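Subject: Interface between my chains keeps coming out wrong

I've been trying for a while to get a sensible model of this assembly. When I model each chain on its own everything looks fine, but I need the whole thing in one frame so I can look at the contacts. Pasting all components below, labels as-is. Any help appreciated, I'm running out of ideas.
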Amino acid sequence: MSAGNESQATSGDAVTTASAGRTPRPAEPSKAKATIAWIALAVIFGGAVALSDAKWGQLSEVFTEGARYFRLMGEGLLHSPFSEPYSEYWTLAFQKMMESVYMAWVGTMLGAVISIPMGFLAARNVAGPVTVQVTRIILNAIRAVPELVFVIVIMLPIFGFGPVAGAVALGVGAVGTLGKLTAEALEGIDPGPVEAAQASGASRWAILRWAYWTQVLPEVIAFWLYRFEINIRASAVLGIIGAGGIGQLLSQLFSKRDWDQIGITLVVIILVTIAVDSISGAIRHRIISGSGQKVTTEEKAEAAV
Amino acid sequence: MSVEAPPAVAVDRPRRPAPSLTLIAGLLLAAAFTVWAALQIDFTLAPLWRNFSNGWVVISQFLQPNWSFIFRVWDAWVETIAIAIVASAVGVLVGLLFAFGASRITNRSGWMYRTVKTVLSVIRSLPDVAYVLIFVALVGVGSLAGILALIMFNIGIAAKLTAETIDAVDPGPLEAADAGGSGTFSRARWAVLPQILPNYLSYCLYIFELNIRASVVIGIAGGGGIGQVINVQFSRFNYENVAAITVAIFVVVLLIDQLSQYLRRRFV
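Reply #2:
Try treating it as a single job with all components included. I did that and got this:
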């Protein structure tokens, strides 16, 4: 901020006084505002450091203990993945990670299917004002509740422990964001095709299908894929409290402190996540650029989480 | 030359374009993967109506929040906000450095650019709980583990968003800096930073919001703050207390969201 203002002010002065020959350097603009802002930030930060109740003395253990554990993890990784028991570790980590991926995918699909009608009902140019308001309130309420709470409160008592509870919770959670994004995409469409369809006497359903839905489809599918990427990470959290998948394995391993197996599991998480992200990202870019739209899906989706 | 009249018969309907093979293959693949994934986790919605009464017991408890509990855990709220402030401040500062390394515009060394990119995608691929578990093992249960875990998480997001903004800066000031013979550092400081600053500040606020939202997750895995309270109350089946905390988190997130929207309007 301040840097931008400074350079503008200086160049302005230079232009007006250039003709007067050798001119004194213009006075530097006041930095008081920026200084006050920095001091305020420093005070807030200092206060937060003091109030956070963190045992700062233990910070050095990150390096001492960290180095030791890191070596232990490395030992697990350096053993041949085909020798016992390391081959089992690799298989188990991979199985559990895939369980998380399946959980995330089924949850995303479930949420996506429900979010389509919700999105239409929440778009101002499709539904009436009362319907829009009611649907938006529902979507906002869903977005407000953390998925973790969904799992513990509703899904575990009904579905029992396991990945299905997690998948349903991720699905319900996804309805909130996907419904909102679909509604926003629908509100931003070009009205031309809608008018054309109306002029040729298309039925209400045909207009929704061919004038509205076709226009938002690429963007909506990109949102679904992006949500899938987010859900893979979220499924790890759900595993900790009993929804299966990689989170469950991680919390078991950390309570046993099996560092060689933890190292293998973390590497599997990193590899699978990067692989899924790059496939999903490539499809998203293909879909969006193929449709000729310039949308920064990620920023929009991030803002709606 | 006489102009022939157009034929009076109705024009044939144009041929329907052939469906794209890639699209069909893609859809089939997606459908097959969905079925496969559902089979692998034994997906079924049947318990939803079979066991609904089980869930209803909890939900009905949840619908009677114990409001007074919110203020009884005042310390945990302060801790949560403090954790979020410290973690986002450190995270966005380190993230900014990484962002300069992760853009071709500010980092003209090929191998360094690729290294930074790889490190960042590794940092981003671990979920936040994994970081909490790691740091709990290193420094013990408590808010320090939460702060360190959130810092790692924030570095990933801040660096990614900021690097994308750096990629899109106006080349004019860059050329001016190059023509003036500036080095890599002063080029980044004076030609790039002023351009990305408004966006960067709004990412900082966004990350702070994310950190407040993440406090539930952080606490459940042992990272301190309000999430730890939720964890304890859950294990004691005090759902009315959990309900009150959930609503309060929602209100806090909403307030911070309003505040950061106001600040963002002033920056951008």
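Reply #3:
Confirming on my end. The two ends of chain B are 68 Å apart (CA to CA).
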